[in-house]
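Summary for the steering committee. One of the milestones for this cycle was to obtain a three-dimensional model of the protein with adenosine monophosphate bound, which we needed before selecting residues for the alanine scan. The sequence and ligand used are listed below.
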Amino acid sequence: MAVDSSLPSPLGPPACEKDAKALQFIEQTTRNAAGVQERVLAEILSRNAETEYLRRYKLGGATDRKSFKSKVPVITYEDLQPEIQRIANGDRSPILSAHPISEFLTSSGTSAGERKLMPTIQEELDRRQSLYNLLMPVMNLCVPGLDKGKGLYFLFVKSESKTPGGLLARPVLTSYYKSEHFKTRPYDPYNVYTSPNEAILCADSFQSMYTQMLCGLLERHQVLRLGAVFASGLLRAIRFLQLNWQQLAADIRTGTLNSKITDPELKECMERTLKPDSELAEFVAEQCGEENWEGIITRIWPNTKYLDVIVTGAMAQYIPTLDYYSGGLPMACTMYASSECYFGLNLNPMCKPSEVSYTIMPNMAYFEFLPYDPNSMGLDPTRLVDLVDVEVGREYELVISTYAGLYRYRVGDILRVTGFHNSAPQFHFVRRKNVLLSIDSDKTDEAELQLAVDNASKLVLEKLNASVVEYTSFADTKTIPGHYVIYWELLVKDSAEPPSSESLSQCCLAMEESLNSVYRQCRVADNSIGPLEIRVVKSGTFEELMDYAISRGASINQYKVPRCVNFTPIMELLDSRVVSKHFSPSLPHWTPERRR
Ligand code: AMP
């Protein structure tokens, strides 16, 4: 689309010529949302007309909305499993996309315990980059002077694997950081990071975090914004500082690098930067050595204007802790994206977290919205509405069709329309469907938790003549890293011989072994989830829980034990009935290779 950057931007006066172009692009694209969507759908359908998938639905070359909607079904990941598996096994024929599948992006959403594999094509990198390019121009409208300093961002690559057919499978951000788009990005004074590429690209998470923190400390006065992708990641960095500040201060004092940094490129790069600075070392030791870490972020990085971190959705649970460490700095949630597709951005990034709305960019994919009705049993595809037709105040499930070959694919996110920017709707992220527990990028649903409880019972408790009568769970984020807490009420056949503490710890581990690979990766590789805890409660506790719910108006006939709790009076009731606590004694198994 041709962009006239001489026009003033209704979003505000741009900081520079480059920003003017980006803001105009946002204006033009959102003004003509319906037209852009029509064009995007026509492009997707025409270029992929000869794919096996679209031929199956006999579109006969049609690229209009009506034919598409009447012929192509709305699907979930499970429906696409056979096609994905064939591509993973090496079938290079045009199954979903006319363009070759360049790699798989591994989603944090799982299917049968393993990360979902999202096919992608080379040009999608450009599309993702185009959304990234809009973020700073919008931010510059809200926070002036960001070209006068740097951003301290904790960014990481994660492990990758190969599918049986030889395609790479890795998280979308790993793919992006390793791309030329990121590695050789042009210099932009508004977007300079303290972390060198060598640190971000180091696969060893300790070395990567250590050197990123070290660079952040060395340039503490230059840091104007501080962030990570998700809130949990930023808190992990704070925890890392708590555990490692002595060594970091020692490196700064002597100007010599911790011997644990062994990656040759990273080592060389850091040795070029690190010079002895006893004053800074003393400052770091003084601040970090204090018992009270309230406001530590602004004490160490006094010029920080905001935290750049997602605190919407499951991450909202970390807002109070971030407030504590940052002394109440604003938190900017800048974008909404996934492995399947990058969706949109927040045009008012300095708003309160509870008010964040994301504007979906109509050029990213073809978007449809399924009105969300928790009581409706079946899916009625005729009810899907187009991007420009959603109604303010209503909730919808997001359905996308992408250039990479997903057609009418249910993402699983529930969004509420809060308003429009021109004719593009803006959405509050309500939640992801079916997620019961989440600490970091893990998403555990009710069925997975049930299976974990069943497996632990089968493997450990049955032999001890005991069983789980009732259970519920809680994501405990009071400590860093957070961990899953499972409350168990037990039935012990021989009360003279209750299960030992050791066997209950084994139950914790058995549950962890049953949980999905994202959970286990967070536990093992990222250290972003702590050991699972079982709290055994007195017998009769869950009946009390029901009595409490009924006293508050729940119907006796319809009462179901909540499988996850976070309402304070219920937590207090449960905790007051705890008879013993047990933790997983070791790490569950995890390797980058998929189990199937
Ligand atoms: P993944 O496929 O692992 O990249 O995860 C993508 C999912 O993360 C999305 O479908 C959302 O459920 C969640 N997500 C991404 N961005 C945001 C955001 N800004 N706020 C809340 N949830 C988000």
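Key point for the committee: The pocket of adenosine monophosphate is lined by residues 107-109, 172, 310, 312-313, 333, 336-339, 411, 413, 429, 432, 441 (CB under 6 Å).
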